[in-house]
Amino acid sequence: MKLTVTGRRLAITQTNRLDIRRRIARLERVLNDSAVSAQCVVEQERAAFVCELTVHARGDHILRGVGRHARLPAAVGAAITKVGGQAKRLADRWKTRRKAGA
Predict the structure, then answer these.
(1) Of 42, 70, 97, 102, most Cβ neighbours within 10 A?
(2) Given this model, what pLDDT does residue 13 score?
(3) Distance of CA 57 to the CA centre of its chain
(4) Which residues are paired to 3 by β-bridges?
């Protein structure tokens, strides 16, 4: 999966990039390697970080989540949690349709 991490009005360190990549790898496992690409845009608004995460899965499925927190790792975690719930629903939908077709 191709991952793009962008920082608006702040610099994203290599440590932050690796942390985001590690957390998104869990989403890849939930989607059974069906994720095509992911974009993570991090910006700072006043005293909070905002992380917008968009994951493109096969079949033109777009999963999107926004997380806000005073700390950057917590904002990323909130966005990944929201997208993770969508990914679980999508994976479950794929499984049940496979069973119903048989």
Answers:
(1) 42
(2) 94
(3) 11
(4) 38
Contact in structure between 72 and 42 (CB atoms under 8 Å): yes
Q: Are strands 2-8 and 35-45 parallel, antiparallel or unpaired?
A: parallel
Q: Which of these, 99, 90, 73, lies nearest to 30 by C-alpha position?
A: 90
Q: What is the DSSP string of 25-57?
A: HHHHHHTTT-EEEEEEEEEEETTEEEEEEEEEE
pTM: 0.89
**Residues with pLDDT less than 70, the chain:** 101-102
Pair of tokens at residue 71: 């700390």
Q: What does the alpha-carbon distance between residue 65 and residue 53 come to, in Å, rounded to a whole number?
A: 5
pLDDT at residue 101, rounded to an integer = 67
Residues 6+ apart with CB under 8 A from 51: 40, 41, 42, 66, 67, 68, 72, 75, 76, 78, 79
CA–CA distance, 79 with 65 (Å, rounded to integer): 5
